[in-house]
Amino acid sequence: MRIAAPARSLGLLVAAAAACYQTPAAPEQATEAGSDDAGTDGTVTTTETSPGTTITASASDPTASSTSPGTDDTLDPDTGDPTVDPSESSGSVDSSGSGESACGDGNADPGEFCMPDAPVLLVVGIGATDVVIADLDGGGLDLVSLNIAASTISLLRNEGDGAFADAEGSTVTDAACRVLAIDGEGDGDVDLVVAGETITSLVNDGTGSFTRNDSAGSGFGGCLDHNDLGVLNNDGGPVDVVYSGAYNNSYAPGVNPGGGWQFGAAEGIGAPGEGSSGVTVTELSSDVDNLPDVVVLNQYYNDGEIYRGNGQGGFVAAGTYVACAGLGQGARLAATGDLDGDGNTDIVTTCMQGNFTIALGNADGTFAAPVEVVYAGAHRPRLADVDLDGDLDLLVTSATLERINVYLNDGGAPAGRPIQLDVGGPARSVDVGDLNDDGAVDIVAATTTAEGGRVVVFFGQP
Question: Per-residue confidence at 219, pLDDT binned at 50, 70, 90?
Fold first, then answer.
């Protein structure tokens, strides 16, 4: 079943539930990740497709005072927000005037966002909580899940045309909750770095086989669901990391003492203090030195702190911004980028008690008062151009609602009525990429249900 509703403009983009969204036409969307009965040891060969059920789109713009023509706004039982009434469905809408749907024609057109009725579920290890897309063996974009309950990663090799091989498991540091992919040694191979009891590097030999190096001097102290890991490079050598633990945010320089990429002794970013949460690597537009900067959050405070890199492994305090004003308890995780096309860095922040905010940047390095967007259980934000129209769209996971909300951007700041992608379990991370080389962006998440760990893949359908 497809849902269509006319788009509306409030200065912020408004997106409706869609199986095909092509700006400025009305979108449609139907998807839900179901469960299955396969094993959970990361070695099962099953690839599953969940049955699809129609979903609605919650209006997350608290400032909206009007409704779209042709829709009947009811209340979303999850959030209390208005939702599109499925009875108003009219199929896909083509904004070109040709009368034909843009979705399914095989062309990934700018402004087009087409998702399937149901995602593909890939079996991985127990406790899957994070996922990353990267080409680890030269054979296309692969998938890696981080499985916190098993202290493993699961590598799903891309076999082409959207097919993946059985999961290959590797043991990592205990209590691991975050994995990132980057060429840590500068040798052309994509390596992995994992945050857990220690910071662990997994050095790739170019075939997707890894050598594990635990960095004893860079203790993470285990992962809570608001702790974070970021990668940067201050000196042109091995890639460095920044991370948040229970009591501090830290920087650890990348080193290669002969046994492969790992990390030296950690240095604190700012004063030690309980409650550290997200730490996001960015490049502030108001800073012309081209050195990596970081945004630091705390679960007990509403203000985020900004630190400018000094190029020598240190960071200098450069002010604060209001991250979660009025929400009562601190900030969780952040993503940065230029959302409104004015050349300034903007910040999206999820908040500990739910919802998220958008703080638009000013040319002088300050930030406007945040705009709060209603979204229960908002967890990790991710900025990416998912509809290929040249501006950054916003994806936000929710562990509570078990879904990814996609807010398409029309050149302003993305917010308003989202496209919902149901994951079928707690959703804490999301990544994007073209997994099957069809030109459309695909979206992946990791989750764990009663049936075990799954990577949930929404293949874009041009």
Answer: low
Distance CA 124, CA 155 (A): 8
Most confident of 2-6, 24-28, 82-86, 399-403: 399-403
Structure tokens at 138: 């030269």
Q: pLDDT of 180-192, one tens digit each?
A: 999 999 999 999 9
Q: Give whole-number Cα distances, 2 to 19, 21, 85, 116, 197, in Å.
A: 6, 12, 12, 10, 46
Tell me, what's the pLDDT at 327?
A: 62
Confidence of residue 310 (pLDDT cuts 50, 70, 90): confident
> Which residues does 91 contact at the CB level (< 8 Å), separation at least 6?
2, 4, 28, 101
